[in-house]
Amino acid sequence: MGIVEGLGIVLLPFFLGFYLGNIFTRLGRYSSSFLMVTLSLLLFIMGFKLGQIENLATELPRIGVKVVIFTVVLHLCNFLFLMPCDHLQHKKSRQIAQVTRDWRLLLDVAKLILSVVVGVIAGLWAKGAGASFDYNLLGTISNLILLFMILASGIQLGSAKYKLKEVLLNKEGFIISVLFTLSCLVAGLVCYLITDVPLNKSLAYTAGMGWYSLSSVILANAWGPLDGSMVFFIDMARELLALVLVPLLMQRFRCTAVTQPGATSLDCSLPIIQRSGGNGVVGLAITFGFFANLYVPVLLVLFTGM
Question: Which PANTHER family is this protein grouped with (predicted)?
Fold first, then answer.
């Protein structure tokens, strides 16, 4: 699949969903539940394919080590690019930072990890039983579910009724979105230099920006379940670390704190940002998250097409 076709498949349902959500706001009530169901199905399929891989027991420790390396390098690069921006602006939150525990988010994360684990177990059982499957059909089903998931993401964003003009005109939000994206790409380059991961894959791993529901599926469809699981855990780690880093950083490093959840600053992680920094940072988080949501699919399709 070419880059243009890939971008069309990813972006068209997103903007269609945004349009529908903006008109039919009631659809937004059901989009979160629908997203969880579709994502769980996709992760189960990814786990199932992962369970079919030979020598899986030797591959999993390698994945774990690389996930740790990529996660550490990513956050260090994010800090190096965003903290100077905070220092120059000298903007501090007036609220006292507190570690926020969002148990609902943790429960959702646990459900998604369970989907992968159940998929792996099912894949291992099927391989042991000698069962055969039409993997082309399985890939087609995955792509269809992905389209509906992206459509639901657009509906969720559109139903929130963000004023697009205000979002686009927030200069600070746009600047930190560019800095954050550059820091992720630099992290991909650094990881390429210190690991045995090819450059295009290394850049793709760091371009997910926390949007594990999209990055894991695109990479799994393009390169296989090992790569899909790799980026899934890298992006999942970002969201989990954000539960601690956002409150800790907010008082002194506002922009750095807002960018820690990556693309999920716009939705899942917005309540954490609001509770940590007050209503004054909500507009910044929405603008940053909006642009990050646009960058991620473009970069993922670009790198998987290299």
Answer: LYSINE EXPORTER LYSO
